[in-house]
Design goal:
This protein is mainly alpha-helical. Helices cover about 75% and strands about 5% of the residues. The chain is built from 18 helices and three strands. Strands 1-2-3 form a three-stranded mixed sheet. Strand 2 and strand 3 form a beta hairpin. Helix 1 runs antiparallel to helix 2 and helix 4 runs antiparallel to helix 5.
């Protein structure tokens, strides 16, 4: 039994906000500016993992700041699911910050202080989402994440970047409106918004109310999770610098979306009501369709970052499908895949960025023979791509193994077929890149 203990230590997870202020006032001294981000990244990792030790000993730390509504406070609470996402975000923020320093300086990007400031706020918002003790706190950090990442999406300030930013805001703020409506309805029905394992809706709730809450809450979080047809913003956002793409795909935005799906399914509505009304089957259907359609779309892409973007759309729905199947192994696989996809996809984006900085190339058709010129970069790309496709014994294989086991446990045979087919499709768009890079000659004149 986990005991909730009041403590100020969860507030240490908000260190990125302090770093953002220090970055903003240090813009004239680039080395000092980046040092604040790196130092805050190290401190955040230490803070998150120190709270993991308390949780392992049966103490869930909680910090309440001030009331937001009757019976609802702005509060952070450390539980197992939130800690996984917080640890993922904090570790990848440090790596992405170090990578970003070389990237933006190599390309002499403009507005670097704004860039690193927004980066820090984005990660602070993601960690706030991870440790939110209730739906209203979750919503505030969730929307702050939208506003902090928008300047990064439009960073290049070209016409295409501005258009991508408008689409991004239209989708995410529209989803935020749906989420706020669902939160207000949930509060009216339950009188509480505190996350609780198994859900906290009253037992006597009607099927119509469950469907209504499901629709509003899942649209609210499913947009950032890029579940089709709510995915169009994500490929467009690839106009942003490559480290921003890594932030969107691996560290913050889309991971906040799939994390939100896990929260809604497991800690708000609960598996029981979802299964009783059949909403879990609908969610599984959308997730399965997204996995297949996004994988097929990735096969047709020549731009490397767009290929990775459609790959992300499909891979995120592995997590959504695992949540929808409502079995122990499927939920285990969903949480594992959230972590595995984050680490592997950020690696792939880092490789794509290194290729661009070194060669100026962004298209798959231009990568022939590049394994000879950039053997380490393309070698790492190959390993990460095969792991993400589910090649044993890599991490991607382990999470998919649990997902398939969970589908078998729930007799969801169609889901098993989707997972197996998607792995083949993953190989279909990654293997030709690897073969071309290592077994085709360099272009004439190189």
């Amino acid at each position: 039994m986990t005991e909730t203990v009041e403590s100020a230590r969860p507030l240490l997870a908000l260190l990125p906000f302090a770093a953002a202020v220090l970055v903003a006032v240090s813009g004239r001294w680039p080395n000092l500016r980046e040092a604040w981000s790196i130092g805050a990244g190290v401190a955040l990792i230490a803070a998150v993992f120190s709270m993991a030790a308390d949780l392992a000993e049966g103490r869930a730390l909680q910090a309440q700041l001030f009331p937001l509504a009757p019976g609802v406070a702005l509060a952070l609470r450390v539980d197992a699911l939130g800690l996984v996402f917080a640890a993922l975000s904090s570790c990848l923020w440090l790596l992405t910050t170090i990578y970003s320093i070389g990237y933006v300086r190599s390309l002499q990007e403009h507005a670097q202080t704004r860039y690193f400031c927004c980066f820090a706020v984005s990660v602070g918002a993601a960690v706030g989402v991870a440790l939110a003790a209730n739906l209203l706190t979750f919503f505030l950090f969730y929307e702050l994440l939208t506003m902090a990442t928008w300047p990064l999406v439009v960073h290049k300030e070209t016409a295409a970047a501005i258009r991508a930013g408008r689409v991004y805001l239209a989708y995410t703020l529209g989803a935020g409106t749906a989420l706020l409506g669902g939160i207000a309805w949930t509060y009216a029905v339950a009188g509480s918004l505190d996350f609780q394992a198994g859900g906290f809706l009253p037992a006597a709730i009607s099927s119509a109310t469950v469907w209504g809450l499901f629709a509003l809450l899942i649209v609210g979080v499913g947009t950032k999770a890029a579940v089709m047809p709510l995915h169009a913003w994500l490929p467009l956002a690839m106009i942003a610098p490559t480290p921003v793409s890594a932030l969107l795909h691996a560290v913050a935005v889309v991971k906040a979306g799939v994390f939100g799906v896990l929260r809604v399914v497991g800690y708000v509505i609960g598996p029981g009501p979802l299964a009783d009304v059949g909403a879990s089957h609908l969610l599984a259907g959308f997730a399965g369709a997204t996995i297949i359609l996004a994988s097929l779309a990735a096969l047709a892409q020549d731009n490397l970052k767009r290929l990775l973007a459609f790959s992300t759309v499909g891979q995120l729905s592995y997590v959504v499908l695992g949540a929808a199947l409502l079995t122990r192994d499927s939920l285990t696989g969903a949480i594992q895949h959230m972590v595995n996809h984050g680490t592997l996809k950020i690696t792939l984006f880092f490789c794509a960025g290194a290729i661009y900085v070194a060669t100026g190339r962004e298209r798959v058709s231009e990568l022939a023979g590049l394994g000879r010129r950039l053997p380490v970069t393309m070698g790492v790309f190959a390993v990460a791509a095969l792991a993400l496709a589910g090649t044993p014994p890599a991490a991607g294989f382990l999470s998919k193994w649990y997902l398939i086991g969970g589908a078998l446990e729930g007799h969801a045979w169609l889901a098993v077929g989707v997972l197996l087919a998607s792995s083949l499709l993953n190989l279909g768009y990654f293997v030709p890149i690897i073969l071309a890079a290592f077994f085709r000659p360099l272009r004439d004149g190189e």
